[in-house]
From TrEMBL, chains A, B:
CDD domains assigned: ASKHA_NBD_ROK_BsFRK-like (cd24067)
Reactions mediated catalytically: D-fructose + ATP = D-fructose 6-phosphate + ADP + H(+)
Sample GO molecular function, one term: ATP binding
Protein name in UniProt: fructokinase
EC number assigned by the record: 2.7.1.4
Family membership: Belongs to the ROK (NagC/XylR) family.
Gene3D superfamilies noted in UniProt: 3.30.420.40
InterPro entries associated with the record: ATPase_NBD, Carb_Metab_Reg_Kinase/Isom, ROK, ROK_cs
Keyword Repeat appears in the UniProt entry: no
Cofactor(s) demanded: Mg(2+)
Swiss-Prot/TrEMBL keywords: ATP-binding, Carbohydrate metabolism, Kinase, Magnesium, Metal-binding, Nucleotide-binding, Transferase, Zinc
């Protein structure tokens, strides 16, 4: 059976893995993210040690990335505040070391592909994957194909209405102030109330306010894509009871206008800790 | 050269046409929208009179439509307040009369396909078409393919921030109040100020307020799809000077974060009166 090399490239660690095309992961290995030379070199070293003869290699990576296939710097990190990584070539070293095709996507788009193929969106036709944590990101897959315009989505930066009890907060996004990320990401919650949602005292309006923002975002995504599934992952949405609130509020705001019913559409991720590596696998299979 | 039968199906009139695959329209004919029997019958009659032997027939229609190919009522109008047209079969009569494939899309998706193929988005890769008039609608095309989830987009119903000088208006949408359509469509303008934007006295803030809403919407669409072109058509955006205001305000709100520069991305439609029939042709060619 064909083998695939997988890389989940994160800002603090890389996870390398080996799998078959059905999603069985045979081996995985964690490598700290230091410099491109060290980290990519250690990843190649581990693949070799495992005797990998890959059909293809897939990378699901932190960004920003140049994903324009016509660009001379396709497959590279673009400008990032992360030391050493601006301009780093993520794909070339693997293509040279293993002589195979190498695919690259954002980590969020990778997770969207994986949830659509093996997880919460299996057989559903279309899936929007959102992660709400340190930041907010999203990817949309329809019939196995990722939504792309000039660049990968930056769904955290959609414009938002304001909750009537939250008019004084300027928002946490350095670029846009009160976009979705600026209002609902983990640091925006800490900036307002000093603790995470699950640490707020009972009766505090914080959970309702954040659930309301995520419900408004769900309505906007229904209006634009009407996804069969909206997966909400990340630390913020793991707060107990939050998904149920979001479902109820999205149904109220949508007023039955869209085909998808939020009670069925809005779901938790299904792939857990495997979503990064399976994202890389989906990227490798889709080259 | 192959011939295609085209139908632009509107609430007050149908326009039938005949064209080749390059977009040359040889003949067109206008038919009032009365009952499905009369209007579809007259359309078939005109096609026959013209001696049409179509390779395929494309319909770009008012809605709501059942566009789910797996549904037994694919190609029918669903529930509409328009008398006689709920449940009307738009495609079957043409398939039976001409023994050819018949394609159907919403009028907005048709215009999006046509602008992407022959108009403002030619060679651009991706295009969002918005029409802002009696209502607000939108369609997105990437590499010739329409964005579809569970249903066609209802982009007029995205959630919106509120302009600080427009906090008292409840919004005009019967379902969502202050969604994009509820704030920026023609009737929402009349409801606030009694006249259309171009009839407002000089110095009135109305144009700036509406331009700001359309700029916020453009930013949201850039965050989600980053379209190479955002075409803004319809009566409201035809107001002199409005597109320039929208471009400036979208650039301010986006803060340079997205790949597309609003000054180049936001454009007027290029196909004028032909966009309906060319939309039907794009549908026929895409079956």
């Amino acid at each position: 059976m064909a083998q695939y090399g997988l890389i989940e490239a994160g800002g603090t660690k890389f996870v390398a893995g080996i799998a078959d095309e059905e999603g069985t992961i045979f081996a995985r290995h964690r490598i700290p993210t230091t410099t491109p030379e060290e980290t990519l070199g250690a990843t190649i070293g581990w693949f070799r040690q495992q005797g990998l003869k890959p059909e293809a290699i897939g990378i699901a990576s932190f960004g920003p990335l140049d994903l324009n296939r016509a660009s001379p710097t396709w497959g590279h990190v673009t400008r990032t505040p992360k030391p050493h990584w601006s301009g780093a070539d993520l794909t070339g070293p693997f293509a040279r070391a293993f002589g195979c095709r190498v695919g690259l996507e954002t980590d969020v788009n990778g997770a969207a592909l994986a949830e659509a193929r093996w997880g919460a969106g299996k057989s559903a036709g279309s899936l929007l994957y959102l992660t709400i944590g340190t930041g907010v990101g999203g990817g949309f897959v329809s019939e196995g194909r990722l939504l792309h315009g000039l660049s990968h989505p930056e769904m955290g930066h959609i414009r938002m209405p304001r909750h009537p009890l939250d008019l004084d907060f300027a928002g946490h996004c350095p670029f846009h102030g009160d976009c979705l990320e600026g209002l609902a990401c983990g640091p925006a919650i800490i900036a307002r109330w000093g603790v995470s949602l699950s640490e707020l005292p009972e009766g505090h309006p914080g959970s309702d306010i954040i659930a309301w923002y995520l419900a408004q975002a769900a309505v906007t995504f229904q209006a634009i894509m009407d996804p069969a599934r909206i997966v909400m992952g990340g630390g913020v949405t793991a707060t107990p009871g939050l998904l149920d609130k979001i479902r109820t509020m999205a149904a109220q705001s949508g007023a039955g206008y869209f085909v998808g019913n939020p009670a069925e559409v809005i779901v938790a991720p299904a792939l857990g800790d495997n979503s990064g590596l399976l994202g890389a696998l989906a990227v490798a299979l889709g080259i």
